[in-house]
Amino acid sequence: MSGEHLLSKLAIKNTSGDLEALLAFKSATKDQYDELTNPSGVLNLGVAVNKLQEEVILKKLNSVNQVVKEDLEYFDPTGTLPFREAIADIFNRHFNVHKQVESDQIMVVNGVTSGIDVITSVLCDPGDAILVSEPYYSMFVTDVSLRAQAEVHGVQVPLEEIQLPSQVTYYEQKLKELASKGIKTKMIIICNPHNPTGKCYSRKAIGALLRFANENQLFVLMDEIYALSVYRGKDVSSAGTVESSDDVLFPFESILSWSNLEEFIDPSLVVIVHGLSKDFCMNGFRIGWIVSPWNKNFMEAVSVTSVFSYQASLVNSMMAKVLGDREFIDGFINLVSTNLLDAYNKTTSYLKQNNIPYTPAQAGHFLWINIKEPLLTWKNNNLKPGEARLTSTDQLTFDDEYAMWLDTVNRGRIYITAGVNFKASEPGWARIIFAQPWDKLKVGLDRLLAFTTSSEPQS
Ligand SMILES: Cc1ncc(COP(=O)(O)O)c(C=O)c1O
Prior knowledge:
The chain folds into two domains: 3-54 and 331-453, Aspartate Aminotransferase, domain 1 (Alpha-Beta Complex), CATH 3.90.1150.10; 68-325, Aspartate Aminotransferase, domain 2 (3-Layer(aba) Sandwich). Helix content is 38%, strand content 12%. It has helices at 9-15, 20-30, 54-64, 81-94, 112-123, 140-145, 168-180, 203-215, 296-304, 313-324, 326-353, 372-381, 398-410, 438-453; strands at 43-44, 106-109, 129-134, 151-156, 185-191, 219-223, 270-275, 288-291, 358-359, 366-370, 414-415, 417-418, 429-433. Helix 4 (81-94) packs parallel to helix 10 and helix 12 (372-381) crosses helix 14. One of its GO terms (biological process) is amino acid metabolic process. Pfam families: Aminotran_1_2 (PF00155).
């Protein structure tokens, strides 16, 4: 028998999924649009990167890029001390911490993706359930399952309750439902600020979820990867104009800032992740970190596996210099929120002008948009033989949404993320990334509208 057939059961399970979406993603990243060199390439409005400060961060990186002999050596796989000290400094100066974060409470990993894998392996057994409110960042599913073999179970929270404490009732129902099937729930993930809606949770909502987790002895993974990418409603004075009744602005409050955390939960159940990819615009460096000031056993257990999430020594030394430069970092963090606000305003004006509803956001690189009308037009222009015309958006299905999404990448040459990937509650939602220069973004939005509403049928 050939070795090709002798893979582990886990590997076989991991490779047996639907590869169509992966291929579309590959084509979007391989054949990227460039105004001059590749105008027919795919315009990427799908991958959450913030391109607005590219020149600033490149200049800074090139100024600290010097290789010394220590960079050739092995080092502490949980991250070099100067780097962990620089990360602690970021928390202590920018997360309004209740108690100073220490460098030994931090473990550096190669990306938050890797961090979630490590955390899940340490906290969950195969088959354990992890609750996440829908819509959610789709990669949570693979992050917790590919190696750790835990499973995300979505909790359907209506959009209007996503910032509110009332959402806890949906978690309670899900927990009961899983228990009745003999499935053990071990953890909840709270993504605050939230991907894909760009909203911040109210303190009351987090409090209710913490109490729920505590009562049921569940770990709480706080994914705060967009903590410093808040651009509206950072505090009362910068709240700006409220756009509509669903535009409820809460300031982002890191779990590290809670002075009375013990009143809600045993803090040893709480873990935080953050990293370079979003707030510092360096996705490609593949660096994230896990923080748990309250659970030494947990930190020991994750650090045992740190040899598998080792990063380049050179990146540690460069990042110690970049994050350790307080003047640069403070200016950079301000610039990020100013630029995001500007891009958000331009994008939302465009959406309003073109009658595309969206969920008002306050953080992150994305907007959660309602594309039911373009989807209906696309669907009716691309009916299969024998299919009847649809008369209302209520008749749309997730299959229609998926088919349009594939067509949008393959023929329309725009990559967005379809709501079905985030487990949206109904067809016709998508996430677009607006944190990119307006001239390129506008080409993408124009293409998206023109393509979905054009009467040219699917080939
Ligand atoms: C909510 C959330 N968590 C984690 C990640 C993964 O980040 P990293 O690049 O550090 O692996 C992302 C990336 O899009 C994200 O949006």
